[in-house]
Amino acid sequence: MSRLAAYIVTAPGLEQVTAAEMARLDMKVVDLGVGGLTASLTWSQLMLAHLHLRTATRLLIRIGRFEASGFGDLQDGLRDIPFHEWLPKRCALNISVSASASRLNHTGAIEERVRAVVRRAYDPAYEYEGGVHTLHVRMSRNICTVSLDATGDPLYQRGWRTESGPAPIRETLAAALLQWSGASVYKGVLTDPCCGAGTIMIEAAQMARRMPAGRHRSFAFQNWMPVDPAQWAKLLAASDADVRVPLKKKYVASDIKGDMIDKARANAERAGVLDDITFEVADAIKTLDAASGGKGLAVVTNPPYGERLSAANQRSLYLALGRAERLAVIAPASSLPSFKREFDDTLATSNGGLSVRFAKVAFSG
């Protein structure tokens, strides 16, 4: 197990963004697919990926792959997997099964066989009492792939956002917008006039200070049998030592709702970047209009859309946002003309199941 066959799950459309992020971490991507990419990682890289990857959703580690045209083949292949070398005894286990274009397509029956084989790998007292570890079993064209979820809770659950509002943007999506647009390396002041819970500016501040994305939480792989806790502790210490000093109000986060600013400020404090961000209760349209029609403003935002805003208010807001000198935004494709800007580039992805696009102008990235 010197190298691990990893599958990195992403939101559809963000595969190249995550691949670029992995390259910056000196992790080589083997192949890109829809909604994910494969990579060959060392144990140290697996740990570093969980600490530093900001745009991925989770990492799966393949522990078995074999042909299975019937249940006999399935059971034989499963018995060859050394589950006891990966999972601690008496751990709780969830099993997730998917099947397509295969003779074995009854997911419930597949799960029964998997659970029975795993049980035999342990002593008779082995019990399943909850979801501490998750085993993914995928049948496709009569090939069975068995993977362990290394992550646990999705990576967008950083551990600091306990305060939220309506339709919050996931941390992974916020980070992807910042990286894809080039705003993450912009030297000037960044502004989010529709900040909500503050996610975009918090992600930007943490990136600028080299703060590990996964520092405030734990991961499933930490309880795997091969993992050395001392190695994990050493990587944590090295990551902490690399953190830069606060950038003192390089970021501005505002929202028309005072309670959202209170939540955003609390989130920023938990994330360790309260001193980096200026928080303001302000109307986005008035703020943008007051700034010489947007001249000199660099805006990165997830503005309200759909049922969160009337059509008239949305048009006014988007028109004001469109006057920013530099703009990176996430919005439905049908709404992009409302900004009255010729965007340099767009990228299709999804936000909470809704099809949206990243769009940018005047940022280089």
From TrEMBL:
This protein's UniProt keywords: Methyltransferase, Transferase
Domain spans labelled Ribosomal RNA large subunit methyltransferase K/L-like methyltransferase: 158-323
Any GO molecular function: rRNA (guanine-N7-)-methyltransferase activity
CDD domains, per database record: THUMP_AdoMetMT
Boundaries of every RlmL ferredoxin-like domain copy: 8-60
Annotated InterPro entries: DNA_methylase_N6_adenine_CS, RlmKL-like_Mtase, RlmL_1st, SAM-dependent_MTases_sf
UniProt feature coiled coil, ranges: none
PROSITE patterns: N6_MTASE (PS00092)
PANTHER family membership: RIBOSOMAL RNA LARGE SUBUNIT METHYLTRANSFERASE K/L, RIBOSOMAL RNA LARGE SUBUNIT METHYLTRANSFERASE K_L
UniProt protein name: Unannotated protein
Lineage per the UniProt record: unclassified sequences, metagenomes, ecological metagenomes
